[in-house]
């Protein structure tokens, strides 16, 4: 199979890349593991999408401050300077997203580490109101083919150039040759036992790019969201709830964030997440007190989630941190180009430099949109060049029952205990050794077997090892990478 542009992933970044490439006259194949829009991380975005309004300088400063002053100022300039055009041309004019409004205009929200209200939103379920219309629009374009339930297993490369990828669908595997390839595979939530990501977030794109020789950067910066409602069916409680006045209390009823940071509940995510974890350890429980406002009226979607799970928000919503976003990834330039020729990366699997050590709330959808459009435009104009691609072998018996599941559980336990919210050099060294051995076990099987679950497990093992190694090599605490003096139990 041949296509001008192969986009792997169907979140907002992948959709934006496909749209921009199609607008440049390219034939686009969008391959996604998802069978429903909600299987993409963008669907789960609650808070909204930050925009510049009339304050580009303060928006830039908020991004830099939230990153612990580690974000790339030039990359932040690209985001801020292109935000208005991207939002207006795609979300307003093309998709006609109905963002919440009041008599005075759009009802801009505020979230942690933002100095002002600048977040467009649709209740607390913004992602689904963007992604659904986006996929529907792409499906109507004659030059775009959307292939659902289709996984990319491995990039096809030759002498530093990417020529496409092997795609698997319904057990059938075929090479797809592309003039250029755009990875938009999302995050790494499946590397941790508790995450706000969908189950398919196994780090596939990062692993494929790394194995092909692409440069990666800042892999140690894994962001944890501080307020995930705990229970049998956990769910994210948007930062916008704290932006509207909700406060965090420990099991003694004490509000603790004012003692942790001048901005209290609106401190950067890494600060709030660590504070919540410590108060849970110290007192046994942390709740989000939503009594300062009419929760059910302001956030009806979240109220419904609470009701369906038997959570009494009047008594406070029980919360804990959970893995949320990878700030690092495949190193790219201002147009999404990776270090390998004809390879692009956008969205959470990429590293643009915008987030540094900690991402500012509600910038992920914006980054995906801005870089998706830029990468899609830059990726168009190349003809596919089929090459003699090596065959993926599948000659040995099928994997033992539950092999992938059991290895994945082991991996998540190691990441949770040793490469989580707080880390120590000793534990990172131990995790690296365990993950290296686990990757070796997976490699031994993958040489002669080919299946989606095995390649997803490879994605997990490669990406987990990259995160642990990067963390072990960075002796300085910053943002999401926090080195603690405390020791944790062994997981191996």
TrEMBL record:
Question: Which SUPFAM superfamilies does this entry report, sorted A to Z?
Answer: FAD/NAD(P)-binding domain, Succinate dehydrogenase/fumarate reductase flavoprotein C-terminal domain, Succinate dehydrogenase/fumarate reductase flavoprotein, catalytic domain
The record's EC number reads: 1.4.3.16
Instruction: Tell me the domain of life.
Output: Archaea
The GO biological-process annotations, alphabetized, read as:
pyridine nucleotide biosynthetic process
- What pathway is it annotated to? Cofactor biosynthesis; NAD(+) biosynthesis; iminoaspartate from L-aspartate (oxidase route): step 1/1
Asked whether the UniProt record includes Oxidoreductase among its keywords, one would answer yes
Any one Gene Ontology molecular-function term assigned to this protein's record:
L-aspartate oxidase activity
Q: Which UniProt keywords are listed?
A: FAD, Flavoprotein, Oxidoreductase, Pyridine nucleotide biosynthesis
> What Pfam families does this protein map onto?
FAD_binding_2
Q: Does the keyword Cell membrane apply?
A: no
Record-given protein name: L-aspartate oxidase
Which taxonomic lineage is given here? Archaea, Methanobacteriati, Methanobacteriota, Stenosarchaea group, Halobacteria
């Amino acid at each position: 199979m041949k296509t001008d542009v192969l986009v792997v992933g169907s979140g907002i970044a992948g959709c934006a890349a496909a749209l921009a490439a199609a607008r440049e006259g390219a034939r686009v194949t969008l391959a996604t593991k998802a069978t429903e829009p909600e299987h993409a991380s963008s669907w789960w975005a609650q808070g909204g999408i930050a925009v510049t309004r009339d304050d580009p300088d303060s928006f830039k400063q908020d991004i830099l401050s939230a990153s612990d002053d580690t974000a790339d100022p030039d990359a932040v300039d690209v985001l801020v300077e292109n935000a208005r055009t991207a939002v207006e041309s795609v979300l307003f004019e093309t998709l006609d997203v109905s963002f919440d409004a009041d008599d005075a205009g759009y009802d801009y929200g505020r979230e942690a580490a933002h100095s002002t209200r600048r977040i467009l939103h649709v209740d607390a379920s913004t992602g689904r109101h963007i992604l659904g219309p986006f996929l529907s629009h792409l499906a109507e374009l004659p030059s775009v083919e959307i292939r659902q339930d289709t996984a990319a297993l491995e990039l096809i490369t030759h002498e530093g150039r990417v020529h496409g990828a092997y795609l698997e669908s319904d057990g059938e595997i075929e090479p797809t040759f592309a003039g250029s390839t755009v990875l938009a595979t999302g995050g790494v939530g499946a590397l941790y036992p508790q995450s706000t990501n969908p189950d398919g977030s196994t780090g596939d794109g990062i692993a494929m790019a790394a194995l092909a020789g692409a440069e990666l950067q800042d892999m140690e910066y894994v962001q944890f969201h501080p307020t995930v409602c705990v229970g049998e069916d956990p769910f994210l409680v948007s930062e916008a709830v704290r932006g509207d006045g909700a406060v965090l209390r420990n099991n003694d009823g004490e509000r603790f964030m004012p003692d942790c940071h001048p901005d209290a509940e609106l401190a950067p995510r890494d600060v709030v997440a660590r504070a919540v974890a410590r108060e849970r350890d110290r007192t046994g429980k942390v709740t989000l007190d939503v009594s300062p406002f009419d929760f059910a009226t302001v956030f009806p979607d979240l109220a419904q989630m609470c009701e369906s799970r038997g959570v009494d928000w009047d008594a406070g919503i029980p919360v804990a941190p959970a893995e949320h976003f990878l700030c690092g990834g495949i190193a790219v330039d201002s147009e999404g180009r990776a270090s390998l020729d004809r390879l692009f990366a956008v969205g959470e699997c990429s590293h643009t430099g915008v987030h540094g050590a900690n991402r500012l709330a509600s910038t992920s959808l914006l980054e995906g949109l801005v870089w998706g459009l830029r990468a899609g435009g830059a990726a168009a104009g190349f003809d596919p060049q089929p090459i003699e691609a090596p065959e993926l072998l599948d000659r040995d018996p099928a994997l033992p029952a539950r092999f992938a599941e059991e290895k994945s559980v082991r991996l998540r336990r190691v990441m949770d205990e040793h490469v989580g919210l707080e880390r120590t050099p000793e534990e990172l060294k131990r995790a690296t050794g365990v993950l290296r051995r686990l990757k070796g076990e997976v490699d031994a099987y993958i040489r002669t077997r080919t299946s989606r679950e095995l390649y997803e497990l490879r994605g997990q093992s490669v990406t987990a090892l990259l995160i642990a190694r990067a963390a072990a090599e960075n002796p300085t605490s910053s943002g999401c990478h926090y080195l603690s003096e405390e020791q944790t139990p062994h997981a191996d």
